[in-house]
Amino acid sequence: MRAVPYPELKGDVAAMETELIRIAGMGIVGAVLAVVVSEKKPEIGMLIGLAFGALALVMVAGKAGGVIQLINESVKKSGIDADLMVPILKVTGMAYITQFAVDACRDAGQNSIASKIEIAGKIMMLAVAAPIATALIRMVTTII
Amino acid sequence: MDVDLIFKIAAIGILVSILNIVLNKSGREEQAMMTTLAGLVVVLMLVVKEIANLFDTVKALFGF
User: What's A8's DSSP letter?
Assistant: First the structure.
């Protein structure tokens, strides 16, 4: 066994595939159960899908935390202002939450509610991201 | 904890639908509807807890 030249690759990469297999198995089981229950009670079948989504994403969230930490460290090392990273991460999280809610509403057949949530999410994300655009404009004007 | 919740919800769904059929057959439509409603509320409680957990996790993760 030769030494790994990149210390980044040594983390808990090995545990990923077991986690993925667990989530895939949960998804298949959940889909079968949802089909069985939906025959008589479609509303509870839909809630099975929602519960699976929440559980799977919570399981994955821990791994995403490592990635975000890695990105933050790289930004800190490269000397970019860390304040610029905050809106990017915020918008990413907001996009995930919006997507989750929109998918839940689409599954329930409420397309109009889903698109309203989508619009609300877009406006909120724009509000978070707008200061970056103004900062860019300010930077350009100071250069000129 | 993980798959158990899905099994629990599916079990509640099957139980409620069986109770619904039995009560409908014996001519108690109102009670059948109440059973359906109670089952839905119980499942909704379980799922909402999990969704709140997910949103809290995302909030903590992305630094809201």
Answer: G
- pLDDT tens digit string along A92-117? 999 999 999 999 999 989 999 999 99
**pLDDT-derived band at B19, boundaries 50, 70, 90:** very high
Q: Do B58 and A96 touch (CB under 8 A)?
A: yes
pTM of the model: 0.82
Domain that holds residue B27: 2-61
CA distance A70 to A67: 5
Which of A32, A35, A58 to substitute to test the interface with B, most B CBs within 10 Å?
A: A58
The string over B8-26, giving b where at least 16 C-beta atoms fall within 10 Å of a residue's C-beta and e elsewhere, is: ebbebbbebbebbeebeee
- In this complex, do B17 and A40 lie within 8 Å of one another by their Cβ atoms? yes
Q: Count the domains in chain B.
A: 1
ipTM at complex level: 0.83
